[in-house]
Specification:
mainly alpha; MetI-like fold; about 75% helix; cell membrane
Length: about 270
């Protein structure tokens, strides 16, 4: 069990590290300008300064993948940040007042938001505010709030019945102090795991939104839009869809493996089994 856990954690960390390294490198160097349209290089095969070839507009595929990694991470970080900032406090409040009307209200609203997938929210937001990266980030973030709220509430309920919390309540500590000093540090590991899993979901959602035209707008490179632009050449030039599809798959796999590995490593019950 320990070998499998370490292998998953290491593999996930390596894949995530590769995506992050690629995104950081794109700030300082790319083989070509990823937005430069060069008709002379249209559908150029790999080689001669174009490691992965060029697309139907003559843009370097490798450069687009590098900058697309930056876009993907940017959307994921902001979306998961929005979800955590909104969902964790709500979940903690609901967990610390499990029999109150406020807890019931929070969880019922949480269920209502959970019924709307990120794609539908993005379409709604795009119709009102216009499609774009900001719209995608907000839609994905709002759609992920219920997941963080549920995890935070479940973990808070477990912490609230521990001896040290009961002692703190008997000593007259107020709920905000208990939340900051006792609850949040003890549910942090679960939230880290949830953030990793939510990041994988955010990557898929951003790619899907860009594919449908509700995500990142041209000329900013995006893995999802690279797939959308390659669909008409899927049979004649399949490599145009292969590379962005592979990048999305590896990024999602990396964050999922990282989340599973962190869960197994940080969960004390699984640690005792090992």
């Amino acid at each position: 069990m320990r070998g499998r856990t370490n292998a998953g954690l290491v593999a996930g960390g390596a894949l995530v590290g590769l995506v992050v390294l690629t995104a950081v490198a794109s700030f300082f160097w790319t083989p070509h300008d990823p937005t430069l349209v060069d008709a002379a290089q249209k559908l150029r095969e790999p080689g001669g300064g174009y490691p992965l070839g060029a697309d139907k507009f003559g843009r370097d595929t490798f450069s687009q993948l590098m900058v697309g990694a930056r876009t993907t991470l940017y959307v994921g970080v902001v979306a998961v940040g929005i979800a955590a900032v909104l969902g964790v406090p709500l979940g903690m409040i609901a967990g610390m007042t499990p029999r109150g009307w406020l807890s019931e209200l929070i969880m019922r609203v949480n269920d209502l938001v959970f019924a709307f997938p990120a794609l539908l929210l993005a379409v709604m937001f795009g119709a009102v505010y216009g499609a774009g990266t900001l719209t995608a980030m907000i839609a994905i973030g709002v759609a992920t709030v219920p997941a963080f709220a549920r995890v935070a509430r479940a973990a808070t309920l477990q912490v609230m019945v521990t001896d040290y919390v009961l002692a703190a309540r008997a000593a007259g500590r107020r709920r905000p102090a208990i939340a900051v000093r006792h609850v949040l540090p003890n549910i942090g590991s679960m939230l880290i795991v949830q953030a990793s899993v939510s990041f994988a979901i955010a990557i898929l959602a951003e790619a899907a939104l860009s594919f449908l035209g509700f995500g990142t707008r041209p000329p900013t490179p995006s893995w999802g839009r690279m797939l959308q632009e390659s669909q008409e050449l899927l049979f004649s030039t399949p490599r145009l869809a292969l590379w962005p599809g592979l990048a999305i798959a590896l990024a999602v796999l990396g964050f999922n493996l990282l989340g599973d590995g962190l869960r197994d490593y940080l969960d004390p019950k699984l640690r005792r089994i090992r």
